Amino acid sequence: MFTGIIEEIGTIKNISKQSQSMIISINSKKMLEDIHLGDSIAINGVCLTVTQYDQSSFTMDVMPETFRKTNLSQLSAGSRVNLERAMAANSRFGGHIVQGHVDSIGVIKNRESEENSVMFTIEPNQQDIFKYIIPQGSITLDGISLTLVNVTNSTFSVSIIPHTLEQTILQQKFTGDTLNIEADILGKYIHHLLNGNKQQNSERSNNISKQMLMENGFI
């Protein structure tokens, strides 16, 4: 589990791509302060596993499902990436619950500077993600925990403060660029719970018959 608070910006050292998978090595300092084989680290919001490391970098595999569903396939040597280690049990919970499981890739439709923030408007490529999205709710973009400002039928907006812009790769994201999107897990659970109850109630009402009422002593 992650919190969406980026710890460091890393740089892709080298990358070995196949048709639907790849191996990436990332230059880092902070991640290497306490790293072990098998550790989970979120790369632009994607939970990956450390398979190798040395004094200056660590290596991770990107499997086909991740390759297809995230923007990691767009990375190349020299690309900068957001990094966050999995949350420790004694850590402060600074953002919101982030799993590192991407729901959609989003395209930046507009980037507008305001007095002390930058407003990003995003269009997801998976429109069914909107069932989990509400204004003032939480959303994860490239691993960053953010608050939704506006939500329309096809886009949503987030407002980025200067600190977040400076400490993440959002500083280099502009109109047309892509972002990994993860909806709030609480929204997913609530949606599943409510729709599960509706389905159960529907099944119960569809199963009501004279025979059922007689068997259960109602008539």
Strand order within the widest beta sheet: 1-2-5-4-3-6
- What pattern of helices and strands is seen along the backbone? EEEEEHEEEEEEHEHH
Instruction: Report the top-level CATH class of the largest domain.
Output: Mainly Beta
Task: Give helix % range.
Answer: 10-25%
Number of separate helices:
4
By secondary-structure content and strand pairing, the structural class works out as alpha+beta
Count of distinct structural domains: 2
- The geometry reads as globular
How many strands appear in the DSSP assignment?
12
Please state roughly what percent of the residues sit in beta strands, choosing from under 5%, 5-15%, 15-25%, 25-35%, 35-45% or over 45%. Answer: 35-45%
Q: What is the CATH architecture assignment of the largest domain?
A: Beta Barrel
Distance between the termini: 53 Å
Characterize the largest beta sheet: strand count, sense, and whether it forms a barrel. Answer: 6 strands, antiparallel, barrel
The CATH topology of the largest domain corresponds to Elongation Factor Tu (Ef-tu), domain 3
Radius of gyration: 21 Å
